[in-house]
């Protein structure tokens, strides 16, 4: 075996979980079975208030790797493609002498260029580099939304199903015992989906343990910063794609032996745009000009900001400001309901049964609220008293001061970064910011499962009245 050559500059191992949130024992989830990650959290830093800027993969990842808010440079629409993206932070690492290996998921709404990385070598199969400094990335996709579909519908979901089939029955979650969010009906379908997600996280935990074992065997663990985080929240209705904590409040665990004390709990606000500048700071590299994030360990950040725009064929425009206690949400299209159709999400049995029970009039008021014909223009939640964000306090006179503070903070943020969400996609295409993919996503608009629930429509992917086939409906 080749002996590792040590360098006083740290190696970086970035491990990203997909479509999952605070579903770990170290974050207090009673259904979690994540012993490896829980032990890892105790060995270093656990951030309690870490948030992505977008609750879906490509815009979230684009901000993570650039240190920029996606709506500030054009990567904000899910499944768009930028023509001239800004540099990834890995370029600065590579230029400073780090070997950058990025063998897996590159879902940024833009193509990764040669200047950003050294290679796409599968280091998990071939072994970690023996000479540092190096940066290695991997994506653990077993928790992806598609792994929760009960029937595999493509090669990727079939692969995920095979992984879950290998989990011993004794380690699987009993659907009857999982905790169900209060906004969802407690049905066998919902419980099965949640149990599958926790099973998948248990598998991810074992994959994580295998990676740590590989790092230990390489002899480089003491000089390697290991980071675990997720791209956005769980693929559970009202989680992924939506700007509540279930979609944006995420795990962030960091271990650096000798530099970060075991048991460190970081309670400051951390935005996903802060990850790149913090990694560079740990490596002694100055934050490149133009990055909007700052190294989070020294940050006095009061708010984390973010939002969502088009998701495939489902249009909306939402922005949020999250402080330690409060979440403020601004719905720029309150005329569009929450319960719009997204073909990907409709494959989830939870979504189907939720719609069916609403059509039958069998939901509680809290469970039925998601199917309102319109949204409020503003939402304000006390996340300590109301962790699921179900009681909108925007009209409560007792919360007027908090509403005004968060409203002003979001206004200042959007003005400072420039919000391209206010620019129609036709104009972004005309400006040469993104490629023209309008017809591809317009063609994905599909009828709702019957009944359509009489919520109106049909509507085009960009929120304009759709004058196509009368069966096209992505509302309700």
Mean pLDDT, all residues: 90
Instruction: Using the CA coordinates, give the radius of gyration.
Output: 22 Å
* CATH class category label of the domain at 11-310: Alpha Beta
Strand content: 5-15%
Extract low-pLDDT stretches.
448-476
Shape: globular
Structural class: alpha/beta
- Counting DSSP E segments of at least 2 residues, the number of strands comes to 12
Could you give the distance between the termini? 60 Å
Total number of helices:
14
Major sheet size, sense and barrel closure: 8 strands, mixed
Helix fraction by DSSP (H/I, runs of at least 4): 25-40%
What is the CATH architecture descriptor of the domain at 11-310?
Answer: 3-Layer(aba) Sandwich
CATH superfamily of the domain at 11-310: Alkaline Phosphatase, subunit A
For this structure, the CATH topology of the domain at 11-310 is Alkaline Phosphatase, subunit A
Secondary-structure element order, N to C? EHEHHHEHEHHEHEEEHEEEHHEHHH
Summarize the model shown.
By secondary structure, the protein is α/β, with parallel strands linked by helices. The chain is 28% helix and 14% strand. Helix 5 links the parallel strand 3 and strand 4.
Question: What does this 3D model show about the protein?
Answer:
The model is unreliable at 448-476 (pLDDT under 50). It is built from 14 helices and 12 strands. It has helices spanning 35-42, 57-66, 70-73, 89-95, 123-126, 155-165, 188-218, 245-248, 275-282, 349-359, 365-368, 400-417, 425-430, 438-442, and strands at 11-17, 45-51, 99-101, 134-140, 224-230, 249-250, 252-255, 264-271, 304-308, 318-322, 326-331, 378-382. Helix 7 runs antiparallel to helix 10 (349-359). It has a domain at 11-310: 3-Layer(aba) Sandwich (Alkaline Phosphatase, subunit A). Strands 1, 2, 3, 4, 5, 6, 7 and 8 form an 8-stranded mixed beta sheet that branches. It is α/β, with parallel strands linked by helices. The protein is 28% helix and 14% strand.
